[in-house]
UniProtKB/TrEMBL annotation:
Belongs to the metallo-beta-lactamase superfamily. This is N-acyl homoserine lactonase family protein. Keywords: Hydrolase, Metal-binding, Zinc. It comes from Baekduia soli. PANTHER family: 102 KBASES UNSTABLE REGION: FROM 1 TO 119443 (PTHR42978:SF2), QUORUM-QUENCHING LACTONASE YTNP-RELATED-RELATED (PTHR42978). The lineage of its organism: Bacteria, Bacillati, Actinomycetota, Thermoleophilia, Solirubrobacterales.
C-alpha cells in the first residue's frame, strides 16, 4: 500500500482564532494505492474557488481568500499522476465542508462515496447548510453513497480504517492507514488543524460540537501515543514536511 499527498489550493484567513493574524493554509487531498484499488480521501476546493469563490460559498467568501491555479484542483492533480478518476475504487470524505467536498464533481459518479451518516444528514439539512460550511451542490452527484454508522474497514484487511472523529462537523471521520511494512499513519482531516493544537486544547473558532471535538482530539492523541504518525488538516509547517506527489508519503 502507498500514499500520495496532493495540494489542492490554499486558503488565507484567521484560522487560529478570530483575533489571530491571517494565515495561509494548505488544502490537502490524499490518494491511497491499495492492492485492491485506489481510494481518494477528500477532493479539495471546487475549481471556481480560484476565481469566483462567492459563486460557491456566498458571503463566507468575504472572510477568506483563495488561491487555486490551473491544474491544482483534484482533477488536475490526479491527471499529473496519470490516474483516471473513473478507475477509483472509492471516494472517502472526512466531512462535507466546501474545502473537502468541493471537487466531488471532478470524480465520476460511478465511484462510490463513503461518508458518516450523521455528516450526510447535516449536509442536507437546511439549517446546518445556512450556519456551517456546507455547499450541497458540491456533493449532489447521483452516485452510490455508503452511509456509515461508526468505524469501517474499507477493504476488510485492517489497512484502511475510517475512524469517527466528530465535533468539527456533525459526522467527521479520520482515516487510519496501517501498511504492512511501517508504522500507521492517521489522516486527521479537520479533527485537528495544527500539530501544536494536539496537546494544548486549542480549536478553531467555529465548531459543530466543542465537547465532541475535545473527545475526538483525545482519540487522535491516543493513536499518536501508540506510535502512529499524524497528518494534520491544515498545518502549513507540518505540511511542508510531507512528501508531495508524485513522491510518496510511504
Amino acid at each position: 500500500m502507498h500514499l500520495h499527498a496532493l495540494s489542492c489550493g490554499r486558503q488565507t484567513g484567521r484560522f487560529r482564532g478570530r483575533d489571530a493574524d491571517p494565515l495561509t493554509i494548505p488544502t490537502p487531498v490524499f490518494l491511497i494505492e491499495h492492492p485492491q484499488g485506489r481510494v481518494l480521501v477528500d477532493t479539495g476546493l471546487h475549481p471556481a474557488m480560484g476565481h469566483d469563490p462567492a459563486s460557491r460559498i456566498g458571503g463566507l467568501a468575504k472572510a477568506f481568500s483563495f488561491a487555486l491555479g490551473p491544474g491544482e484542483d483534484v482533477g488536475g492533480r490526479l491527471a499529473a499522476l496519470g490516474v483516471d478518476p473513473a478507475g477509483l475504487h472509492a471516494l472517502v470524505l472526512t466531512h462535507l465542508h466546501y474545502d473537502h467536498a468541493g471537487g466531488c464533481g471532478l470524480v465520476p459518479p460511478g465511484v462510490p462515496l463513503y461518508v458518516q451518516a450523521r455528516e450526510w444528514e447535516a449536509g442536507r439539512d437546511p439549517e446546518a447548510i445556512a450556519t456551517h460550511a456546507y455547499v450541497p451542490a458540491d456533493y449532489a452527484q447521483d452516485r452510490t453513497v455508503h452511509l456509515l454508522d461508526g468505524g469501517h474497514d474499507l477493504f476488510g484487511d485492517g489497512q484502511v480504517l475510517l475512524v469517527p472523529t466528530p465535533g468539527h462537523s456533525a459526522g467527521h471521520q479520520s482515516v487510519l492507514l496501517t501498511p504492512g511494512d511501517g508504522p500507521s499513519v492517521l489522516l486527521c482531516g479537520d479533527a485537528c488543524y495544527f500539530a501544536d493544537w494536539l496537546d494544548t486544547g486549542r480549536f478553531p473558532p467555529w465548531t459543530w460540537d466543542r465537547e465532541q471535538e475535545r473527545r475526538s482530539v483525545d482519540v487522535l492523541r491516543g493513536h499518536r501515543d501508540r506510535g502512529a504518525r499524524l497528518v494534520f488538516g491544515h498545518d502549513p509547517v507540518a505540511w511542508a514536511q510531507v512528501p508531495q506527489a508524485p513522491a510518496r508519503v510511504f
